């Protein structure tokens, strides 16, 4: 199985990346088979994402990240919460992803923030976005406020439950199809033959 983890932390190190890594570990631990993991750090793709918006074309690194998510059997998506919602960088990545990419894909959503007051952002912002993209979102989402890192027992329990749910969803999903991306020049050539 292939597991993609998209993390939108802006600093290094970041609590968002730490939560991502712990969710990956929990999911891999609960899987009944070998899991190949690829982590997509959105902070490294910020410029490529902006260029994609203004040109309509994904650069090489962004295209590779998009293909990582598309070919995965499951997805972990983690964002910091800013102003009671996901970060702009996080949303922008999913805006430049093909709308069908997440259709039927088991997905675990998670977020980090400075205060527990923003924990409902997972339910009012992230869950609706992933439902719109037709992802199969795991029932347990994980929010880690700054104070949760000191209370590791409670956070560890939520991480373990969410990882187990994602692993179960991945086991019961049909394997991802390997699709060949048709280069733009080849698509144009096919169009000119039709006319």
Automatic annotation (TrEMBL):
Domain NADPH-dependent FMN reductase-like, first and last residues per copy: 1-149
Pfam families xref list: FMN_red (PF03358)
Enzyme Commission no: 1.5.1.-
Domain of life (superkingdom): Bacteria
Keyword Flavoprotein appears in the UniProt entry: yes
GO-annotated molecular function: oxidoreductase activity
Top-rank EC class of the record's enzyme: oxidoreductase
UniProt KW keywords: Flavoprotein, FMN, Oxidoreductase
UniProt keyword annotation of Flavoprotein present: yes
NCBIfam families linked to this entry: LLM_duo_CE1759 (TIGR04037)
Protein name: FMN reductase
The species this protein was found in: Nonomuraea typhae
